[in-house]
């Protein structure tokens, strides 16, 4: 009796883990497919994106070097 319960528990655990692995495999495949589709769509657009220019931050200091008297 006890061994039958343990066997059932082990089988249930194995089935659960197998299903989780299948789900993980599907989600990984779906993520790769979504990335590929985004890449293809971005490659076929007619939008010109200007090159980003780096801006230097102009710091306006309020008399940081001066001491308040």
Separation of termini?
A: 90 Å
Overall tally of structural domains: 1
Shape annotation? elongated
In percent terms, what proportion of residues is strand? under 5%
| Order of H and E elements | H
Structure summary, number of beta strands: 0
Major β-sheet, in short? none
What is Rg? 30 Å
Average per-residue pLDDT, rounded, comes to 79
Helix/strand structural class: mainly alpha
How many H/I helical runs?
1
**How much helicity do the residues have?**
55-70%
Q: List the uncertain runs.
A: none
Biased composition (Basic and acidic residues): 43-59
Region (Disordered): 43-69
List keywords for this structure.
69 residues, mainly alpha
Structure description:
It is a single chain. By secondary structure, the protein is mainly α. It has one helix and no strands. The protein has one domain (5-67). The chain has one helix at residues 2-43. The mean pLDDT is 79.
Would you kindly provide a brief summary of this structure?
The chain is an all-alpha fold and about 70 residues long. It contains one helix and no strands.
Write the SSE topology.
Layout: H1 2-43
């Amino acid at each position: 009796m006890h061994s039958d319960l343990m066997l059932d528990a082990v089988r249930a655990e194995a089935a659960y883990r197998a299903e989780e692995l299948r789900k993980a495999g599907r989600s990984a495949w779906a993520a790769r497919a979504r990335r590929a589709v985004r890449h293809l769509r971005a490659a076929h657009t007619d939008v010109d994106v200007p090159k980003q220019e780096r801006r230097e931050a102009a710091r306006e200091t309020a008399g940081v070097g001066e001491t308040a008297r």
